[in-house]
Structures are given as C-alpha cells and as structure tokens.
Amino acid sequence: MTEPEVLAVQKLAEPATDESLTRTWYRITQLSAAPQRGRRRWIPVTAAAAVLLLAAASLTLVRVGPGTLWPVASTPDTVALLNQLADAAAAGPSAPTLKPGQYIYVASEGWAAGFGANGDSNTGVLAPQPRHTWYDPQGMVAVKITDGTKDFSEGGKGETEPSAKPPATGLLAPTPEWLAGLPDHPDKLLALLRKEVGHNDSWTVDHQLWDALGQLYAESEIVMRPQTRAALLRAAAGMTGLSARTVSIDGVQLVAIRHTDRDSGTEIFFDMGTGRAVGRGGVFLGDGVTIVRPPNAPPMEANVTYQATWTQTIVDSTDGS
Amino acid sequence: MFERHARDLLRYATQRVGEQVAEDIVAQTFLTAYEQRDRYDPGKGELLPWLYGICTNLLRRHHRAELRRLRALSRLPVETAEAPSADRVDAQRAVARVAGVLARLPRRQRDVLLLFAIAELEYAEIAAALQIPLGSVQSALHRARAKVRLALGAPR
After folding, report:
1. Between the N and C ends of chain B, which has fewer C-beta atoms within 10 Å?
2. How confident is the model at residue B85 (pLDDT cuts 50, 70, 90)?
3. Is the ipTM of this complex over 0.90?
4. B10: which chain A residues are within 8 Å (Cβ-Cβ)?
5. Burial bucket for residue A162 (CB in 10 Å: 0-12, 13-18, 19+)
6. Which residues of A touch B (CB under 8 A)?
C-alpha cells in the first residue's frame, strides 16, 4: 500500500497516545459506572468485565457490586507503570529508625473543594488547603494538625478527636514495626491488605484499599522499607480498576494512579524517578456537580475535588507551624 | 481485546473526529461490542473489522464534527515562525488538499477510503465492517482514491 494518495491519507492520522488510551479506559469505567435504568444497569459493567476477560484469560474475578472486587482490570499501561515504579522504589533509601518520642511530621500543600457554600451542595469551590500534621508513629495517630495558623487539634470541632477505642494495629492504624513485617511477596501482601480492608456496603474492596493505601502513604511513607514500597506497588499491579495519568503539580511531573469506583476516582501521586508516593487526590466522575476553580488555582483536571503533595520528616517534637 | 485493538481504533477515530470524541466513541465501541456479541460470527471474519464497523457506525453521529475538522485542516496556513523547508511546505499543502477532498467525499467513499488507508483493512473486511457488497467497496475506493490523486497532482 505505497500509492501516494494512500500515503497522503495515512499522514492525516497520528498514532494514538498512551494517555488517550488510558482516558479511553476511564471512559469505559465511567460508562460502566453511569446509573442505568432497570436491568441495563449492570450490562455495561459486565461488558467491561468481559472485555477484560477476553483479553486476559488469567483474570478470574467477575463478582459485581458493593463489597466485592471492581470487575474492571487495571489498564495494561498502569500495570507496567506500577512495576516500573516498584523497580525504582526498591532502589530507594532504607527506612529510618525512630527513637522513642519522635513524630512523623507531614507538611502538605494542595487544593480541596468545599461544598455547601451558599446552600448549594452540588457546587464545590476549590481553595488552598495547607496542612501540617504530626503523627505518633504508634498507630499513626495525628496528635497535632494545623493549617499554618489555626491549630485544629485544640478544642472545638477538631480533626483529631480521639476515638474511644483505638483500632488494632494494622492497615488503618499502622506502626513502623507492622510496616516492617509486611510480606515482600506482592500476592501475599495484596491478600493481607484486602483482608484488612474487609467488605463494605458501599464501595468495592479495591476502592477502599486504594483509599486506605493513600492514607497509609500520607502518614507513614517515610518509614517504609524500600522492599515494602516495591511490594506495595507490585501488589497494586494485581488490583483491579486502576488507571494512570500524568499530572503536573508545581511544575513537577508525577504519575497519578487512580482507582475508579462508580463516580469516585481516588488517586495516589508517585514520583516516577524514585517510585515514592508524594501526594494524593480525588476526582468526581458523575453528573450534576460543578467544581469551581478560582483564578489563582493551578491547572488541574476539571473534575478534581482534591489534590495535595506532601513532604515527610522525622521530628522530635510537635513544635512549629 | 482492549489491549489488542484499542490503539488502532483510537487512531482511526481520532483522525476522523478528534481525540476527545474519539475516546468516547472507542469506549462505546467496546461496550456495544459486548452487548452485541451474539451478532459476531468468527466464521465470517476477524474481530477487528467488526469493531471498525461498530466504530464507524458510532462515528456517523458525529458527521458534522468530522466535516468541521476536515475543513479546518484544509485551511491550515503554512507556518511562518521559522523558515519552513520546501518539503515541509509541500507536506502541509498535501495534508490540506487531502483534508479538503475528504470533506467533499460522499460519506460511503470516505468511510471506505479511511478504513482502507488508515485502518488498513482488506476489501472483504471493509465490506464486512460496513455490511455492503464487495463490489461497492471496490468502486467507492476507486473513486475516492482518484479524487485524492487528482487533488495531490493539481496545482494549488
């Protein structure tokens, strides 16, 4: 097929980009998640599952609905990216040893949409959300949270209200020792984490797990062993419903790995060079909600409701900010 | 299926209606394929031409967007920011001319030509994708190619 007129037509078509491929995958999950009438509700969901089942005979899950596994496999490029990130993370620095009385200090900068202003619960207005948080490593309990001026942990409706009974050590209340003891084998790790998350009436297991991993990274990434970082990423490659996009935050290119469940996208941002988690975000994929981005907000996807990056350090006290 | 065919379908659809709409259409193509899986007969050909057929049907809903895109391409100015090489100017003119011809082609001729040139389907596969006789594919393709050839050879 070398005739000039055919070649000329071919020149009109550029190869599809990886990003376009990933966005197409998003759209399949969105179409799958869009509310349908009656029995048709689950047809696209099952269709998306079948698409994957046809593609990967090794995929075994097809259960659908809350508390079960999202029936859309992670996109192939996402799996490849997660494995690349794991390779980079495995070469990272070893975990620091915390002395008694030390804290993990997390400074995060980002934007969050506030809903309900002027009585309109369908409109979210993005605003800066700086946070300075000190975590007690024994359970990653936030002992102090400020926005730089206001201390949320002092009286009133604080964000650090102590619960009557602290949760058992685990994914939701990790310690450096618990993190150090996590299996390095991705399959074993994924099984353990899914079991820790348990079932829920509203969200799929993997959506909850990705959300919990986002919190785990946000409070304790610095104390993870490089082997654990790598194992978490390789375990994630076995999860369903993940897709990837690149995101630029403060001029830094990051990889956002997103878990989609119905109209909710939960993202964790990774540094491609180090394989380390450096932030997280959220997107709303449904209809009927407007996100207002003020002029001083950085460029971001139209449906982003939250995005923040963090730096973590080990400190001896909760003084400061 | 997605991994194997999505990239090809995206390239084809993106050329016709732009990236954003193409992504929606290709996503819909896969879901439609599943819903209509009973209609796919492996004995009558490969899966990809069948997917192109679904995709092409979905693209028809975006006929106006496709024409707008082609007309815009046909009016692309020659870049002046840097001194362009003669080859580059020629290439841009060729793109503009081809886009102009495609915009003026009857829909069937355009479908057939793009399935042949971009999707690289065989005559029989195009016939299966569009559910038209093989002879119609051959004649539509002959006419479409002749028009493109004429445009490329004609002075601007």
Report:
1. C
2. low
3. no
4. 16, 20-21, 24
5. exposed
6. 1, 3-6, 8-16, 20-21, 23-25, 27-28, 30-32, 43-44, 46-48, 50-52, 54-55, 76
